[in-house]
Design brief:
The complex is a heterodimer of chains A (about 240) and B (about 325). Chain A has about 240 residues and is α/β, with parallel strands linked by helices. Chain A is about 40% helix and about 25% strand. Chain B has 2 domains: about 5-245, no CATH class; about 245-335, no CATH class. The chains are: A alpha/beta (about 240), B mainly alpha (about 325).
Chain lengths: ~240, ~325
Amino acid sequence: MLEVTDLRVRYGNVVAVAGVSLSVADGEIVAVIGPNGAGKTSTLRAISGLVRPSAGRISFNGTDITGWKAHRIVAMGLSHAPEGRRLFPQMTVLENLKMGAYLRGNGAALERTLQEVVARFPRLAERRRQRAGTLSGGEQQMLAIGRALMAEPRMLILDEPSFGLAPMVVTEIGRVIQAINRARKVAVLLVEQNARMALSISARTYVMETGTIVLEGPSASLRESPHVKAAYLGG
Amino acid sequence: MPPSPALRRALIGYGLLAAGSLGLPLVTRDSYHVDVATTILMNLVLTMSLRLEISTGQLNMAHISFMGIGAYASTILMMRGGYSFWITLWVAGVMAAVWAVPIGGLALRVSGPYYFLITFAFSEVVRLIFNNFFAEWFGGPSGLVQIPKPDPLRLAGVQLTFVGKVELYYLMCALLLLAAAVLVRLDYSRFGLVGNAIRQGDVLAETLGVWVFRYKLTAFVLGSFMAGIAGAFFAHSHQVLHSSDFSLEPMVLLVVFTVIGGTGSVWGPVVGTVVLTIASEFMREFHYYEILVYGAVLILTMLLLPEGLISLPGKLGRLVRRGGGGEAEAMGAGVAP
């Protein structure tokens, strides 16, 4: 579904991503873990068209989308929930969700998606008229994911959904991601610093350090890798 | 389906604007009052359309230049080409919009202070061209004089003339209500929702599939069209044009009106323009300090009421309910000119 080949991203003289290749198959959950500054977010931003890669090739569903503008990539069915639970804080929960369906116009299909999303996140239904900025951290993350789902994507890119959340909420988010993946056959590319959660819900994992992939494989076997254990799972 | 609260507020706001502007000549026909009121209505078209552009997060310092382009276009077409005002009026808007495409297309590639500087530079270029170049068309430093008033209009068998002040006032009134209808309709539509989204996070909006650049350019071109229309009215009602009419100083006034009124709501610029124009008329004898006072009021508004005068009633209400009367008075004193 997604095929990234030798991707490079640089900001001026700073090389953020130095040749990354990764792939996500239909309906698969794939995780990218690694420390701060490894280039994980830059990789995602290049995939979703927010920065122009300096080299490499990105193809989605067989179409070369390298260098496309973000709005065209979203239209292809690739939704990105950016890091830091980015919402429109002054808008209500409902307005945020509607913005998620921006490309789909209005209509019955939209209403059905809205019902589905709200059924998945009952807390959002209770707070539909509340401003997004007043939600708790966990609720904000649910809203960010729910909003990305409003586009009915074929693939979901999640950047650090566990960031700044309490451990129990992180577990809940992980469960929600798995449930969405199963129910809707949505492929997920998940970037996480919380390696424990990422490894437990994904089928395959890439370990990224200083701009390159240093390790990759099935998540179950990476959990046993001495390097992953020492660096990411606390020994 | 009953109208939503937001739609009801929009209709009430528009009704108040229509009633207030159409009803004014019933209250006073004093020439000075009608003059001030006409200026207010013209400035409302400018500030409301400027707010449309600001609401996408960009402060366009060349807004007044598009008014100038409309003013000169309409004047030259009428005086040289012999066309009727009812044609030149719309051509003025179209001309401003046509120029807005490349200018906006260029300026909107950058944002924040760079956008501000590019549009400011463009406005100076336009002003200097009106002042120094093509003098046989734009009249050079002495400007254009003896511009004819709008032509009479036959509507449903009735001959309408636009010579007297009240007649011109009603013409401006019609133009304002048209522009406001479009702007209010947009604000309460998907277009308005997307504009809000872009202001609160344009990268985020982009990740949801919004083509932010095209949206900003649409707002820029539409805003410029309205400024061009206002320019045509200005030219044919004042009957004199000079490049300084479209310089930094009147542009700053438009920004002050809009920002003090509040850019978060379509009604903010209405409140700001009406309150500040009337206030400045009361301060006529301090004319030399006018800009100074505006500067001080702008700073106080930014500090005490960042969402503008339009947010004052809501804020006061909340303070009174909380029993913070003392603070409410202090805030009121800061903005009552």
